[in-house]
């Protein structure tokens, strides 16, 4: 790393990125390229000799940016947001600059200790029970993704139950979730070796706004016990991916606790909102859980990747995941004086991710972060109002956070035609390049999703998005 070269190139790259943000609204939000476009534009082999920064940046402008979907555009309303911010971006840059590998405390004490401190800060902002704080046997850790967070707690839970009931009982272990739980859970069950026939995917419907019904869980657990199976893991969600549904944690927790099951809550998106006192109620019951995760890289101004996982019992993680090869031995670890986060995650290597979260919390402060969330929720409320005033549309599920689920209403109760029209509307809106929305299916209905949460989104972008949707809809309906 040549300092002067870094300084020169760094200035130019920061200028490039700053200009990108200044002009971000001039790009089509959803990339309009065809599959394989880049192969036609770039050489088949890597260069033998150094090229200049100008050559690289020219290629970024001409060849890469057309193939970029602009997640930071103020008119990006698809999926859930993936926030970038000045603080998050600079924190990530600092982490890259320091270039450390913080798998054990000794490999960079500040990385481990800052992570513990910042996760405690956030646990306190969320008003999580004290058992999730690092001062006792609990604590938080940064994972790369919610999938990894769920994977490590599922492994810990499996390890714990098999130690009690015998290592040969894997085929008897049963997990519970709802049909709205993110597919990440199914993937982790596949990885962990839970038998597919022992994955209870409990049905939800509009009567509970797609939240998991505790009665249904109780019934399934009782049946499994009667059949000699071992219920051992429940994954609930606060803010499901399709419609931001909220599973009732307190009631589900009672069932999980009384059956000695590990209870995990995935609040990847909606967890951020729960730092606001008025939204904290949606994680009431979190005291009954064993682990809780939310992704700061979604709606908390922290650049990807930064999924936060808290557990009450850190031993359950380390008992399942720790290894102690000679080449990693050191006095602090041997004396049990420190946390080694390598034993709380799948990979060994880990970057200094807490820096970006620390910088977000310090450069914005929790009051500004709460207002940031509130502003998006207000914009979503405005959008919801606009939709509900148009007789061609309906709101499909009640909005709680910043996601609005809506659709064109079916003409003459023809649901099949209605689904087709909603798909066509989505395609038309997205090919306009003016905004990007995604869709889901709820009870067989194709539903359009407008998820507000990009840092640059303002009222005018939401209004403009609605105008485009209305225009495309009226064109479609009068064709
Ligand atoms: N859980 C929920 C509720 C989500 O919305 C998502 C992604 O949007 C995920 C899990 C998957 O997250 P990751 O990509 O971090 O594994």
Automatic annotation (TrEMBL):
The keyword Lyase applies. Keywords: Decarboxylase, Lyase, Pyridoxal phosphate. CDD domains: DOPA_deC_like (cd06450). It holds the Pfam family Pyridoxal_deC. Its cofactor is pyridoxal 5'-phosphate. Gene3D superfamilies: Aspartate Aminotransferase, domain 1, dopa decarboxylase, N-terminal domain, Type I PLP-dependent aspartate aminotransferase-like (Major domain). Belongs to the group II decarboxylase family. This is Tyrosine decarboxylase 1-like. The gene is LOC104766803.
């Amino acid at each position: 790393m040549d300092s002067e070269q870094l300084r020169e190139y760094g200035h130019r790259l920061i200028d490039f990125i700053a200009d990108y943000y200044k002009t971000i609204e001039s790009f089509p939000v959803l990339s309009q390229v065809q599959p394989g476009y880049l192969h036609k534009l770039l050489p088949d082999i890597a260069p033998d000799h150094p090229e200049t920064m100008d050559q690289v940046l020219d290629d970024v402008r001409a060849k890469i940016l057309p193939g970029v979907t602009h997640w930071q555009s103020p008119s990006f309303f698809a999926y859930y947001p993936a926030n970038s911010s000045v603080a998050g971006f600079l924190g990530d840059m600092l982490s890259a600059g320091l270039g450390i590998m913080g798998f054990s405390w000794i490999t960079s004490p500040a990385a481990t200790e800052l992570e513990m401190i910042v996760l405690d800060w956030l646990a306190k902002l969320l008003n999580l029970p004290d058992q999730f704080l690092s001062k006792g046997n609990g604590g938080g850790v940064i994972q790369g993704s919610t999938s990894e967070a769920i994977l490590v707690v599922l492994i810990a839970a499996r390890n714990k139950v098999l130690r009690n009931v015998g290592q040969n009982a894997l085929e008897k272990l049963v997990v519970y979730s709802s049909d709205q739980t993110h597919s990440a859970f199914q993937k982790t069950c596949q990885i962990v070796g839970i038998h597919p026939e022992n994955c209870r995917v409990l049905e939800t419907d509009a009567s509970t706004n797609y939240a998991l019904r505790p009665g249904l869980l109780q019934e399934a657990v009782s049946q499994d016990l009667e059949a000699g199976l071992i219920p051992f893991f429940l994954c609930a969600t606060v803010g499901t991916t399709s419609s931001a549904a909220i599973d009732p944690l307190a009631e589900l927790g009672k069932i999980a606790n009384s059956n000695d099951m590990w209870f995990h809550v995935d609040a990847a998106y909606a967890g951020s909102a729960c730092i606001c006192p008025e939204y904290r109620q949606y994680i009431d019951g979190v005291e009954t859980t064993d682990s809780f995760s939310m992704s700061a890289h979604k709606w908390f101004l922290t650049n990807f990747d930064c999924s936060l996982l808290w557990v009450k019992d850190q031993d359950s993680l380390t008992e399942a995941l720790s290894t102690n090869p000679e080449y990693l031995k050191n006095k602090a670890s041997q004396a049990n004086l420190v946390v080694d986060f390598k034993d709380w995650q799948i990979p060994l290597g880990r970057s200094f991710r807490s820096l970006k979260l620390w910088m977000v919390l310090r450069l914005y402060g929790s009051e500004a972060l709460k207002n940031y969330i509130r502003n998006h929720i207000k914009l979503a409320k405005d959008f919801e109002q606009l939709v509900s005033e148009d007789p061609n549309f309906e709101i499909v599920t009640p909005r709680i956070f910043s996601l609005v689920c809506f659709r064109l209403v079916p003409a003459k109760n023809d649901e099949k035609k209605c689904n087709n029209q909603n798909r066509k509307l989505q395609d038309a809106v997205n090919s306009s390049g003016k905004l990007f929305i995604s869709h889901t299916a709820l009870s067989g209905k194709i539903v359009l999703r407008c998820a507000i949460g990009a840092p640059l989104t303002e009222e005018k972008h939401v209004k403009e998005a609605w105008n485009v949707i209305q225009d495309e809809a009226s064109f479609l309906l009068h064709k």
